[in-house]
């Protein structure tokens, strides 16, 4: 039985960029960072969100938490529309939705002790710092695998992996239901990355968490996710359960993305054997007409230049936005 | 004869806590046309190794405390700065992780490529321009003659890395050092750049030293592999051997902790603990505190790199008994 925890419907975020200049003569352009995206995250699952730089995956993660305001579209959390509710009401929901950032160095205030960092969300939500917050912080430290003596220490005394554990403890101290992991393991060395991935999975089971796991590393996403969504230039181009999307991707971009992952053994070297997509990711300021992938797509047809394909159900639980499958 | 011989290289840095060895007793060699992969996590010393070979570390605070680098029969460690200038370019060239910071933003890419060539060869302006266009063509920049006058900010990350490669290859180096050449790039662009490096090796026959933290990049490109940990080489072998028969517990861990693109693993095999900082390295085998096979003896002496099988060397006291049958 799956119940949606978060649903985005036609969600967009457009930024006005480049305006102003001499006497305001330069014209502003619209950057469609996220464009009419719809998807659902079910309670207790991990939805992986992959795509290359500039595809809008981080913006989408922040939109869901309303850390940035959407231009249009709606977000529902636990059945309630949270798109236009006021600050105070939103604050109530914020307890239930938290984010873990990529850079464990930049995300922690260097002047605050570990106790203050982890207790901060509690204090913001009205608790008085004291024995009770200290107990909660100590409990969280234990959960993320840090000793209680870490309480009085400062971020610079910890390694990257340990700092990420502190970031996780801070995100979890309010016992949220949804965690957006924005490239949460990308900056870590692989031997440490595996520890943090395991920790995130343990905590999910223990605390019944729902994850939106944003990353560019396709093998980490496959490992941790139940379902995976692929983004390209502000659009979700394919969503399916992880086994299907990695074994039988339908969108040519998903296929190219998976084919570009380096081999895991020299015997499977991809040069000359796997199809490469040529060219660079076009600018999001001036995206191609029709299907945004058509400039790089090996299967491009005339219709792809004219009309943007819609995200449609190609098989049960497998959605794809491509004219090839639109028959 | 080997193109490059590095013997017992130790590079030390002066720090607030005294002198610290960034790399210790690093030895390896490289033949013409060979691709050597150097893999390691942060603080393993892979970049310091490359920069020492290139003679690009500021001295002080850096100092080659022991060992030597012999390139094409010449000892680089004892060479003057002026002579070293003549090695860089036609002898050894280097590309870096971040092409944006390696390119000068106020000069066109054509000027920057031509400057490199002009530093080593006497050519007319027209010939310089022709060579630069030629190089951009070779690295797969479309309509090269038009792009020559573009500035770095007008190009994408992948194109900038192609420009860096064009610049590095402009003087036909015998050895190209590529330090994390694809780390800042997206995966579809990374595949293009790795293909390009392999194509150029096949075309020009230059040797490549590719430095990376990514075992996938190693699997895609390397002929032979050097695994580094905490400043020391801990394993060296042909690429297939490293993946099929890793002999050092760290190499095994490094291969196991990467999730698979095709198989389901219920849980990742993580290596406990963290990488030691150069100033706080443990005594004895540097990996011992994180190693599940460590014995008390491992923390007493540093194991040397020894040939355990043909062309396969490992620095571990227990490698022989732990080796898979």
TrEMBL record, chain A:
GO biological process, one term: transmembrane transport
This protein's UniProt keywords: ATP-binding, Nucleotide-binding, Transport
Residues annotated as domain ABC transporter: 6-258
GO molecular function: ATP binding; ATP hydrolysis activity
Listed CDD domains: ABC_NikE_OppD_transporters (cd03257)
Subcellular location: Cell inner membrane
Membrane disposition: Peripheral membrane protein
Keyword Protein biosynthesis part of the UniProt annotation: no
SMART domains linked: AAA (SM00382)
A GO CC term assigned to this protein in UniProt: plasma membrane
Segments traversing the membrane: none
Main location (coarse class): membrane
Presence of keyword Transmembrane: no
Family per record: Belongs to the ABC transporter superfamily.
NCBIfam families assigned: oligo_HPY, PRK11308.1
Name of this protein: Dipeptide ABC transporter ATP-binding protein
